[in-house]
Design goal:
This protein has 187 residues and is α+β, with helices and mostly antiparallel strands. The protein has helices at 14-26, 84-106, 124-127, 153-166, 168-174; strands at residues 8-9, 12-13, 33-35, 38-43, 46-56, 59-69, 111-121, 140-149. Strands 3, 4, 5 and 6 form a 4-stranded antiparallel sheet that branches. Strand 4 (38-43) and strand 5 (46-56) form a beta hairpin.
Length: 187
C-alpha cells in the first residue's frame, strides 16, 4: 500500500488543490457555491453580521463567525468595528490575495510575502443626496500588491494579471451583477 504524503507550498496542500480542481472539472455541481450572511441592526450605525453556513454542491457546511460593523465616532458611530467600506476593501484585498497566492502555488512559485494596501475615496455629498452629480459609492479604489518570492518580475506580473481576471470579488465590483432586492415589513 502506497501512502500519499502531504506536500504544501505557501500553506496550500498541493494534493488537495489538485483533487479540488479535478472534482470541479469532472462534476460541474462541485463548482456551485452559495454564501449567506445575516446582519442585524444593533444601535446607531452599528450592526452585527453572522455567517452560519455555506452551500457547496448539494451539501450545507456549518460555519460560525460574527463580525461587528460600525462607524468611527467622528462620523456618528461607536467605533466597535470596521465600517462597511473598510469591510468591502478587506473583502476585495482578501479575495485578491487568496486568488494570487493560490495561482502562485499552482505555478510552483514560493512566496515569502504577499500584502495589499488599499484605499477607497468616498464623497459623503452623494450619500446625503446633497449633490445629484455625486454617486453614493466610492468614486475610486486604489491598491498596491506587494510581493516577494522566487518568481521573476514577469512571472509575478502574469500571475497578477490572471488574478485580476479570476478574483470573484474584484469581478463583482467591476461588472454588473444580478441583484434581487426585497423588503419584508413585519406588523
Amino acid at each position: 500500500m502506497q501512502t500519499q504524503q502531504a506536500q504544501t507550498l505557501n500553506g496550500f496542500d498541493l494534493n488537495e488543490l489538485e483533487e479540488l480542481s479535478g472534482a470541479i472539472a469532472t462534476n460541474p455541481l462541485q463548482a456551485k457555491l452559495t454564501f449567506q450572511v445575516s446582519s442585524a441592526w444593533v444601535d446607531g450605525p452599528r450592526s452585527i453580521s453572522h455567517v452560519k453556513s455555506f452551500d457547496w454542491g448539494s451539501e450545507t457546511y456549518d460555519r460560525d463567525f460574527t463580525l461587528v460593523i460600525d462607524e468611527p465616532k467622528e462620523i456618528g458611530g461607536s467605533n466597535l468595528g470596521p465600517n462597511p467600506q473598510e469591510v468591502l476593501l478587506s473583502a476585495i484585498n482578501s479575495c485578491i490575495l487568496a486568488t494570487f497566492t493560490e495561482l502562485c502555488t499552482a505555478y510552483g512559485i514560493r512566496l515569502e510575502k504577499a500584502e495589499i494596501k488599499s484605499s477607497g475615496y468616498l464623497d459623503l455629498r452623494g450619500f446625503f443626496g446633497l449633490d445629484p452629480s455625486i454617486v453614493p459609492g466610492c468614486q475610486s479604489l486604489y491598491w498596491t500588491l506587494i510581493v516577494k518570492g522566487d518568481a521573476t518580475a514577469k512571472q509575478f506580473q502574469e500571475i497578477y494579471e490572471m488574478t485580476l481576471m479570476a478574483s470573484p470579488n474584484l469581478w463583482n465590483m467591476a461588472n454588473p451583477v444580478s441583484i434581487v432586492p426585497q423588503i419584508q415589513i413585519e406588523a
